[in-house]
Design brief:
- By secondary structure, the chain is mainly α.
- It is built from 12 helices and 5 strands.
- The strands form 2 sheets. It has a 3-stranded antiparallel sheet with strand order 3-4-5.
- A hairpin with a 2-residue loop joins strand 3 and strand 4.
- Helix 6 packs antiparallel against helix 7, helix 8 packs antiparallel against helix 9 and helix 9 runs parallel beside helix 12.
- It starts with a helix and ends with a helix.
């Protein structure tokens, strides 16, 4: 519930003094304070999605302002010597011992509650707890759509299931849906997903993606008289339709990652030796 409980006063006190003038203050305030009319038409459960406190979750500016809001948290945690990894409101702290991990929790809780008016989930031993201490290898760690084990990084099952559901949604036949639209959206989805998870072990996932989209396109193509049968399209038809060779995309993305890591090492050595 980070975005719903974020203190706008603290956020604006961080943003506004850093701007060259006050011309954007009203625009930023309005962007983060949008109201929804006719709330009585929504169910009580849906009304909770439009709470007046905090900032809009999923808004284009929200991740940026989350980083601004938590900048002090980053600075203090790193200054105390903790190895913090954070993305928006999700974070982990890498520690060598359980004692250090407990200390990190106490410090993080103090910063978030006293400095930023936020709450952190209680520290529990339950494997499903939002806040817990674990040793990777003995137990798996789910973080940012990935599952980390002692030897592998793999997309979470929920992440893969979400991708498969999105493929089915894109290829669901409708009278107003054209083959070109389906192929463009599928191409964008597959390229984006592979780029996001190219660092992980996804060989078995790639096979599942091929099977799913080939089956779905077989059915869709038959309904629009593009194909004679409802059977899955073959690999040649897949490529002929302009869809990406996922294994080739995966190799290219990994090459790019390795080049970036090499450039980073050169940059790091430059400053170390300079």
């Amino acid at each position: 519930m980070f975005f719903d409980t974020l203190d706008k006063g603290i956020l604006f006190n961080k943003i506004f003094p850093a701007l060259p003038d006050e011309s954007l203050n009203g625009l930023i305030t309005n962007a983060l304070s949008q109201t929804v009319g006719n709330m009585v038409a929504f169910s009580k459960e849906d009304q909770l999605l439009f709470m007046s406190d905090g900032i809009p979750q999923g808004g284009a500016l929200s991740p940026l302002f989350a980083n601004v809001y938590l900048s002090d948290f980053d600075r203090i945690m790193l200054g105390r010597g903790f190895h913090l990894i954070r993305y928006a409101d999700d974070f982990i702290v890498m520690c060598k011992t359980r004692e250090v991990a407990r200390e990190a929790y106490v410090v993080a809780k103090e910063i978030l509650e006293k400095n930023l008016n936020l709450e952190i989930h209680p520290l529990r031993e339950n494997d499903n707890a939002k806040t817990r201490i674990l040793k990777i290898g003995q137990k798996k760690l789910d973080f940012l759509g990935n599952t980390f084990t002692e030897r592998f990084i793999q997309p979470r099952k929920k992440t893969v299931d979400k991708l498969i559901s999105r493929i089915k949604e894109i290829t669901q036949y409708r009278d107003d849906l054209t083959l070109l639209t389906v192929l463009i959206e599928s191409n964008n989805l597959l390229n984006g997903w592979i780029s996001s998870y190219c660092h992980a072990e996804i060989g078995n996932v790639v096979d599942k993606i091929y099977r799913t989209i080939n089956c779905r396109l077989g059915v869709f193509g038959n309904k629009i008289n593009w194909l004679r049968t409802r059977e899955p399209i073959n690999y040649e038809q897949y490529l002929y339709a302009g869809l990406p060779d996922l294994n080739s995309v995966l190799v290219e993305r990994r090459k790019s990652l390795m080049k970036h890591k090499q450039d980073y090492r050169i940059f790091k050595d430059f400053w170390k030796n300079g």
